[in-house]
């Protein structure tokens, strides 16, 4: 049951091979069995899930068609879920139970999917290894000594380990794609504005975007069908018509033009990762695609630009966590300043505090022009690079990360090495275009993802390209032996 | 030293939208704490702002009213600082690209001269909540009902040169926003709040002196007093050879003094940056023009019309047009009374006096404009005289009925029957033969003075009902024998 895709599960639920209650119980059992070692969940909502599964079974019996009805899923723990703890993996929100539902989780509820719980993540989505969690680091199901990537590491690990059919994640600088790559699953970061941010606890508002993480492009398409589309509660959400993302999956790729940016294959890239990436590209050539060498000349500026803009926005977004109305408040504050300082020092972890300080500095009087404004100018250059490139090609391909999943604690002392993890992903967020990571091979039994980037609102094209690859390869069907063996 | 006073004003006008600037929660004064709050007003994690289009329309309307450039692209920015009643840790405001740009306003001073005051800008921003320090046993209560209430901050150029000018300017802004219906203008409830920037410089000097900002001065009277007090304080320091410290001060109306609140060194670095949760607001020319077409007649235009249409003096026209309610009231009165000058006198005189004494807004006046108009008709058609009319007015105010009912019930109708008046006068002359003899013996210019005695007697005998314009000629005729 736990290695089948949504389309197949939906068929079997309707054929009464098993009920949603049975399916849900199966995944709850797996979570209990395996998650003590993986630590991919912060909260498990067993009772609610089983109640919802009963309702789903009725809906299925009533002939409702939505393939997500009765499908067990999980949400990254930064989507506000009404009456269910939402922590952002932070001590700051250790006790926060939202009185409202985020648009993403509401739409997933409406489509009939069953939430089994909330997944672990880097605190406030800040991190590339899921080691910055108040609830402990998440382990990579392919190797428990390796990181799952971050920040949506819990979602990626849970999907990879077969603890859940699919999950939501968010991607501010690579937080869906990099853990998808490290855990050997399929993840999609949609165009900025395609999915509502309402109820998503903000890290960097101009970069944050929610998306699906699943075992295949087809499964991602089902979930995107549910969560995409305009939301009047989010002023930055796009009014562009949403499509049926499953409709074009089977289109042949004959004539597809793939751009390979030379900057993505520089010295920083592990040679074996480069080989896996290029092998995958060759597979596309077999499917009728042609390769075009392109350039994204400002790629090297994306890290400095990102690490000004994202912390700047974060420093402001996280100001509301002040101990006044919700979340952690220090004991016995002497006065207001003491309450602010101790509540925030105690509530936020080291990485979050570091980024708040960087952002506060970058926005300070006298530094604003040199940092924030300059970073915004670079952002426009990077965006223009993509616009230019995507006027020549249909999609751009490259690696997701310079390496496969690295060992736990191996980069925690070296923030720059950690930030370089995101070199191939964060320019996409700066530009606001959609991008995916799909499993493309293995190095030393660790998965390697291929990144596919497309034009604004070209999610259907990306999913089509990814699906065609997955119809002709079996990388995405591999599962870690750990999960199967235990 | 002869000092020149330099004043610039920042006025926060609360826009009369139904809901808040960035949420659907109702705007209202006096509700139970924290009952008028949406998620974003509480700063809930994951909540997002959605701009109230009505507030935008009101801001554009104001821009038109002060002849300002409208920001075709305006940008909301975050002003970051920590305060318990600022739930998000930042105030969403506008910085580099405000909705209203450079404009100007003409104010009429007491001596009748017209002065132009520059408007630097006006921008939309959200209000904060309130901290409540009483009744919480050493703790502070937070009420977020006011959080995200829409404000229009109107910033003037430092063009104002006296307390009187400052008050005239604030009154004009008050008239405009209430005329436009974009602010209720209630200063006591904080719907209009004023920050006053004051500096002094020796007369003739070009560059400005160091200024102080007096926060939240909330009545016309306090604005005038606060400026006088602060000017005096600054002049004393400067004349003693001291320096003014740039700082924010508070005016204490009870002690009539200003106190330092925080100096420039303590001031927050607000770390303004464009709010990433709100897209830039792009306006079309059609939208801006459509709003211009809805502008009502503004105070200055109305005053002009009152002068040309009703032949009122400039002073009367300005007073009557200073509030839209008063202007409307006046126009209804004069339509019935058919005598603009008489109507103006009554609205500005008797009516305003009673309204002030009883602290009542003209819109709630116990005497309706129609009723006052009918009363004035009775003066015009000689049914009653002006003196009786005042008593009738008081009776209408007290709820005793309409003018006609009161005149009828109390038998106040003026005696206009010449024969009856003649008989009445004759009786009085007969009863005062000595005075009549004196009169007849007196010089003509003495006689004039002496008629007053007889008029008084007649009015007394008639209980004020004798028509004075009839009494006089008959009296003189009979006196002369």
UniProtKB/TrEMBL annotation, chain A:
Q: What is its EC number?
A: 6.3.5.7
Going by the UniProt record, its keywords in alphabetical order are: ATP-binding, Ligase, Nucleotide-binding, Protein biosynthesis
Is Repeat among this UniProt entry's keywords?
no
InterPro entries xref list? Amidase, Amidase_CS, Amidase_dom, AS_sf, GatA
| Superkingdom of this protein's organism | Bacteria
Write down the Pfam families for this protein, in alphabetical order.
Answer: Amidase (PF01425)
- In the UniProt entry, which residues are flagged as the active site? 76, 151, 175
Q: Which family does it belong to?
A: Belongs to the amidase family. GatA subfamily.
Record note on quaternary structure? Heterotrimer of A, B and C subunits.
| Stated role | Allows the formation of correctly charged Gln-tRNA(Gln) through the transamidation of misacylated Glu-tRNA(Gln) in organisms which lack glutaminyl-tRNA synthetase. The reaction takes place in the presence of glutamine and ATP through an activated gamma-phospho-Glu-tRNA(Gln).
Q: Which PANTHER family match?
A: GLUTAMYL-TRNA(GLN) AMIDOTRANSFERASE SUBUNIT A (PTHR11895:SF151), TRANSAMIDASE (PTHR11895)
What is the protein name stated in its UniProt record?
Glutamyl-tRNA(Gln) amidotransferase subunit A
- Please tell me the species this chain comes from: Marinomonas phaeophyticola
Which gene does this sequence derive from?
gatA
TrEMBL record, chain B:
Limits of the Asn/Gln amidotransferase domain: 328-479
Its EC number is 6.3.5.-
Domain of life (superkingdom): Bacteria
Q: Which UniProt keywords apply?
A: ATP-binding, Ligase, Nucleotide-binding, Protein biosynthesis
> Mind telling me which InterPro entries this protein's record contains?
Asn/Gln-tRNA_amidoTrfase_suB/E, Asn/Gln-tRNA_Trfase_suB/E_cat, Asn/Gln_amidotransferase, Asn/Gln_tRNA_amidoTrase-B-like, GatB, GatB_C_1, GatB_Yqey_C_2, Gln-tRNA_amidoTrfase_suB_CS
Against PROSITE patterns, the record matches this protein to: GATB (PS01234)
Family matches, as HAMAP family: GatB (MF_00121)
- Relate the assembly described in the record: Heterotrimer of A, B and C subunits.
Q: What is this protein called?
A: Aspartyl/glutamyl-tRNA(Asn/Gln) amidotransferase subunit B
Organism per entry: Marinomonas phaeophyticola
Q: Which gene encodes it?
A: gatB
């Amino acid at each position: 049951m736990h290695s089948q895709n949504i389309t197949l599960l939906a068929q079997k639920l309707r054929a009464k091979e098993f009920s949603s209650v049975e399916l849900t119980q199966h995944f709850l059992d797996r979570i209990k069995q395996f998650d003590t070692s993986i630590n991919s969940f912060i909260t498990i909502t067993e009772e609610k899930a089983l109640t919802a599964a009963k309702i789903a079974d009725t809906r299925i019996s009533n002939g409702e068609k939505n393939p997500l009805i009765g499908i067990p899923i999980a949400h990254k723990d930064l989507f506000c879920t009404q009456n269910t703890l939402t922590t952002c993996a932070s001590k700051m929100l250790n006790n926060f139970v939202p009185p409202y539902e985020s648009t993403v989780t509401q739409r997933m509820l409406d489509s009939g999917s069953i939430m089994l719980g909330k997944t672990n993540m880097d605190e406030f989505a800040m991190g590339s290894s899921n080691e910055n969690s108040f609830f402990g680091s998440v382990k990579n199901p392919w190797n428990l000594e390796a990181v799952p990537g971050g920040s949506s590491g819990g979602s990626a690990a849970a999907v990879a380990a077969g603890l859940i059919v699919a999950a939501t994640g968010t991607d501010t600088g690579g937080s869906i794609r990099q853990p998808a790559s490290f855990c050997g699953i399929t993840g999609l970061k949609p165009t900025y504005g395609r999915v509502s941010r309402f109820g998503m606890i903000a890290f960097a508002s101009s970069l944050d975007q929610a998306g699906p993480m699943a075992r295949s492009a087809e499964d991602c398409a089902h979930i995107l069908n549910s969560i995409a589309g305009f939301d009047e509660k989010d002023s930055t959400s796009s009014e562009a018509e949403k499509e049926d993302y499953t409709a074009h999956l089977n289109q042949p790729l004959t004539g597809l033009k793939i751009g390979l940016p030379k900057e993505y294959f520089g010295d920083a890239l592990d040679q074996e990762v480069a080989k896996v990436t290029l092998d995958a590209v060759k597979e596309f050539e077999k499917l009728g695609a042609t390769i075009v060498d392109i350039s994204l000349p400002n790629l090297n500026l994306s890290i400095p630009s990102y690490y000004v803009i994202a912390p700047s926005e974060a420093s402001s977004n996280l100001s509301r966590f002040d101990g006044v109305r919700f979340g952690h408040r220090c004991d016995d504050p002497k006065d207001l300043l003491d309450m602010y300082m101790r509540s925030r020092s105690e509530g936020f972890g080291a990485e979050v505090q570091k980024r708040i300080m960087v952002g506060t500095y970058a926005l300070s009087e006298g530094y604003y022009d040199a940092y924030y404004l300059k970073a915004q100018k670079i952002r426009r250059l990077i965006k223009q690079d993509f616009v230019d490139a995507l006027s020549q090609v249909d999609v751009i391909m490259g690696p997701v990360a310079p390496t496969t999943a690295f060992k736990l604690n191996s980069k925690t002392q070296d923030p720059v090495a950690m930030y370089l993890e995101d070199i191939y992903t964060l320019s996409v967020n700066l530009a606001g275009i959609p991008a995916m990571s799909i499993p493309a091979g293995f190095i030393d039994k660790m998965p390697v993802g291929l990144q596919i980037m497309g034009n604004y609102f070209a999610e259907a094209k990306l999913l089509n390209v990814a699906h065609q690859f997955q119809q002709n390869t079996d990388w995405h069907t591999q599962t870690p032996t750990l999960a199967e063996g235990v | 030293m002869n000092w020149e006073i330099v004043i610039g004003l920042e006025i926060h006008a609360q826009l009369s939208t139904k809901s808040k600037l960035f949420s659907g929660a109702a705007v209202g004064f006096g509700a139970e704490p924290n009952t008028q709050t949406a998620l974003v007003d509480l700063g809930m994690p994951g909540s997002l702002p959605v701009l109230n289009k009505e507030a935008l329309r009101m801001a554009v309307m104001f821009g038109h009213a002060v002849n300002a450039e409208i920001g075709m692209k305006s940008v909301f920015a975050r002003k970051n600082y920590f305060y318990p009643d600022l739930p998000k840790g930042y105030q969403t405001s506008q910085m580099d690209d405000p909705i209203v740009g450079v404009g100007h306003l003409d104010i009429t001073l007491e001596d009748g001269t017209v002065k132009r005051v520059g408007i630097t800008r006006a921008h939309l921003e959200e209000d904060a909540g309130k901290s409540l320090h009483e009744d919480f046993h050493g703790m502070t209560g937070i009420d977020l009902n006011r959080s995200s209430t829409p404000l229009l901050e109107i910033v003037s150029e430092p063009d104002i040169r006296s307390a009187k000018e400052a008050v005239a300017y604030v009154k004009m802004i008050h008239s405009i926003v209430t005329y436009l219906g974009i602010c209720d203008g209630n200063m006591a409830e904080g719907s209009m709040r004023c920050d006053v920037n004051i500096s002094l410089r020796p007369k003739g000097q070009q560059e400005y002196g160091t200024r102080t900002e007096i926060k939240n001065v909330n009545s016309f009277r306090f604005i005038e007093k606060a400026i006088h007090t602060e000017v005096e304080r600054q002049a004393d320091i400067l004349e003693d050879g001291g320096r003014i410290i740039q700082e924010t001060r508070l005016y204490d109306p009870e002690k009539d003094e200003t106190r330092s609140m925080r100096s420039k060194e303590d001031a927050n670095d607000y770390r303004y940056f464009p709010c990433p949760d709100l897209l830039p607001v792009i306006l079309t020319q059609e939208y801006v023009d459509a709003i211009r077409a809805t502008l009502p007649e503004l105070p200055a235009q109305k005053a002009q019309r009152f002068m040309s249409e009703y032949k009122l003096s400039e002073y009367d026209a300005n007073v009557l047009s200073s509030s839209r309610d008063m202007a409307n009231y006046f126009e209804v009165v004069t339509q019935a009374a058919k005598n603009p000058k008489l109507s103006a006198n009554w609205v500005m005189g008797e009516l305003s006096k009673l309204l002030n004494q009883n602290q009542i807004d003209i819109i709630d006046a116990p005497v309706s404009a129609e009723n006052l108009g009918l009363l004035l008709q009775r003066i015009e058609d000689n049914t009653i005289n002006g003196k009786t009319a005042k008593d009738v007015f008081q009776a209408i105010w007290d709820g005793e009925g309409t003018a006609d009912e009161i005149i009828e019930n109390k038998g106040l109708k003026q005696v206009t029957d010449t024969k009856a008046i003649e008989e009445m006068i004759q009786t009085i002359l007969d009863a005062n033969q000595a005075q009549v003899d004196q009169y007849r013996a007196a010089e003509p210019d003495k006689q004039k003075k002496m008629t007053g005695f007889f008029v008084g007697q007649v009015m007394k005998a008639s209980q004020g009902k004798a028509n004075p314009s009839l009494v006089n000629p008959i009296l003189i005729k009979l006196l002369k024998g």
